[in-house]
Design a protein that fits this description.
With 155 residues, the protein is of the alpha+beta class. The chain has one domain: Small protein B (Small Protein B, Chain: A, Beta Barrel). The chain contains 4 helices and 9 strands. Strands 1-8-9-2-7-5-4 form a 7-stranded antiparallel sheet. The chain has a two-stranded antiparallel ribbon with strand order 3-6. A hairpin with a 2-residue loop joins strand 4 and strand 5. It starts with 11 loop residues before the first strand and ends with a helix.
Length: 155
């Protein structure tokens, strides 16, 4: 499902990339499935994942999540997974084309925002984003602080 602007009720966040919202200006959002192993699912459900240094790489007709760290599941024994292996994203062709066209523009990239449970499936919210300069980041912080002050004054 493309363009998922807000969190649907019933979804439970497993891992959130808070730095991405600070470092990038979000242009468009997409929901992608992930090809995961059983030990990865159990580890994510236990809250042991990290998206901080993760990014999305587009290769031909496929997209991969690279640099996402999912800790080994302690009870998986020899059937455990490699914590930093690249994982295939499950997107339809039109979504892949939108992402490719978007990244063709200068300064645009695809960043993972959050891993969450939707029913019994684990989904990844990715975004087409433009990098912010340091002065843009400062301006965003000022605007957020001003909004916070106005909401306090109303109460």
């Amino acid at each position: 499902m493309a363009n998922t602007p807000s969190k649907v009720s019933g979804d439970r966040d497993l891992v959130v990339n808070r730095a991405a919202r600070h470092e990038y200006e979000i242009v468009d959002r997409f929901e992608a499935g992930l090809a995961l192993l059983g030990s990865e699912v159990k580890s994510l459900r236990g809250g042991r994942g990290n998206l901080k240094e993760a990014f999305v790489r587009l290769d031909g007709r496929e997209a991969f999540l690279v640099g996402c760290h999912i800790s080994p599941y302690p009870w998986a024994n020899r059937e455990n997974h490699d914590p930093t292996r690249q994982r295939k994203l499950l997107l339809n062709r039109s979504e892949l084309l939108k992402l490719k066209r978007g990244t063709a523009e200068k300064g645009m990239t695809v960043v993972p925002l959050r891993l969450y449970l939707k029913g019994s499936k684990i989904k990844l919210e990715i975004a087409l984003a433009r990098g912010r300069k340091s002065h843009d980041k400062r301006q965003a912080i000022k605007e957020r602080d001003a909004q916070r002050e106005m909401s306090r004054d109303r109460e």
